[in-house]
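Quick start: what a row looks like.
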Amino acid sequence: PFHSDKTPSLMVSPAKNIAYCFACHTGGGPIRFVQEIEKIEYREALEMLAKEASITLTNFNPAQVKAQKDLYDLYQRVSQHYHQSLLQEGEEGIPYKYLIDRGLSLDIIEKFKIGYSGDSRGVLQAVADVGYIPEDLVQAGIFVSHDRDKFLSRVIFPICNHIGHPIAFTARTLTGAEPKYLNSPATKIFTK
């Protein structure tokens, strides 16, 4: 169920409480299985299974879960903005030429949603439309102040979690600024 497949390749062991796909090497227990099938985070899978089993989870903080979901959403939107910015620079743009000179194809740029941060205002606009404020970007480690993108004038490489959601960035300067590479700080969804 993790991918299209014409030959049986999934093993489920109720005795061991695990599943494993020999084609894509994805496997684990019930929580991991639900995460992969539903494309959701660990806590969401845990909640889904707990509800199915009529189990009440303790130490649950809805505000923290909302903050984490908002952070995932914010990183997704910013990552998409960076990627679109790179594509708008076009083949003649310095960021695009840099990536092509390094041997990356357009397919790779698309697959990994590589981006470029060329304008702090553009990032602010991209997320303000859905209710985020500059302070949200600062707390997420994306901005260093209310009007300055931490990754300004850099090629952006999204760091994604195991299900493909961007949770942080690493960025390479194109202007010779130091440091050459700049990484996101630790957040509620990313630990260095």
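That is the whole record. Residues 62-89 form the longest helix (28 residues). The mean pLDDT is 88.
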